[in-house]
Give the backbone structure.
Amino acid sequence: MDLTHGEQHERFRLEVRAFLAEHWTAARGGQGVPTPEHEARFRRLAVERAYIYRHVPRRYGGAEQPFDPVVEDVLRDEFNAAGAPMGISGGGPGMLVPTLLERGTEAQREEFIDATLHGDIRWCQGYSEPGSGSDLASLSSRAELDGDEWVITGHKIWTSSAHVADWMFGLFRTEPDEPRHGGITYLLVPMRQPGIEVRPLRQLTGDADFNEVFLDGARTPVRYQVGERGEGWQVSRTTLKYERNMLGDPRQLQNVLDDLVELARRTRIEGRPAIESAQIRQRLAELEGYVAAQRWSANRQLTAVARGAPESAQAVTLMSKLYGTELSKRLAELGYDLLAADEALLQPPVEGLGRRLPRDPRRPGAWTLQYLMSHAGAIAAGSSNIQRNIIGERVLGMPRDLRRRS
Ligand SMILES: Cc1cc2nc3c(=O)[nH]c(=O)nc-3n(C[C@H](O)[C@H](O)[C@H](O)COP(=O)(O)OP(=O)(O)OC[C@H]3O[C@@H](n4cnc5c(N)ncnc54)[C@H](O)[C@@H]3O)c2cc1C
């Protein structure tokens, strides 16, 4: 079977590779961590070349290209191989921007999209609440209208990056008498105001990427409501679709598998490289099979999208999130099992950078971090059990989960 993309796309691949070699790899001059200025320059150039933000109109800071899934696939391959970012990471560009493009007003798009894509506005996602995670429709944070402003009272939890965010996109109950999904509105809320308190939650890794957010009389103008009042649930489904698409990429799994093979080569068990142990080889071979299966699934998804069959593509996306995130845990588990005691110690985050060094599997503690963080993807954006329920109901046509019927 020939899995290359055809002459035109393979030529395009070479162009992208040359661009990345010049403007990402060489321009960094071997530095471990690119500076924010370098990233910003690189991002502008990549938009000009129409390599990133392709789906966003030019007037909002994007590249405005017709959808071509094969081009997107080539770009993801090459950016991954070069370790280059496909734009600003996180919920703003990945989730909110497509939501505003589908559901926002013209004024909201003009105010937020360009600034979000280029990192001038940072966002957090205010969905989960204590007791309302998987069962999100039971959320109870409320917003009440006062003139032309919403006044918000409530408690959000697990809010990633709330401590650095300028704005929150969140769900709030505006019609308390409506049934669960009915009375919710999707609001954009400025984070820097007196009615908002952010308290960090320290996680297993020692970092505090998560927060609790307490809202007590926080305000946001009605013009920052996305979609109709009471229809926030439907708007949130748009966001979630894009969030789940961000998880389970086979390229990232392949990166971890490659690192794992390298770790097995340099780790010694009873004086011999671990990779020579039959037991370790067996585990590696099994994992390699699963990573290959994930890659073929991604190819099926690509084929379905290219043939204009969004429903079968959606089914594969749901399965990719489930299997990709579960597989990520198994890969990291083997890495952790292979470590010597001194390699397992977690290193503190790098002072001043506000984040850890880029992926460096040789750094002490790197596999421990990978192991601890690998559990996150299987919970975020819908836990694995919830994902199984959705696949059962929407793809296999099984009866709905009793607890979620309403
Ligand atoms: C890395 C990470 C980042 C996150 N970032 C954010 C964020 O920025 N903003 C935000 O709003 N939230 C965020 N979350 C929260 C995330 O959305 C919730 O953790 C998730 O929806 C699960 O909810 P919960 O933690 O309340 O668990 P629960 O819903 O209490 O679930 C506990 C367990 O019960 C199982 N379970 C629950 N209901 C069912 C059912 N009906 N059938 C079968 N099993 C079930 C679940 O699978 C799980 O194993 C983040 C989570 C993680 C891990």
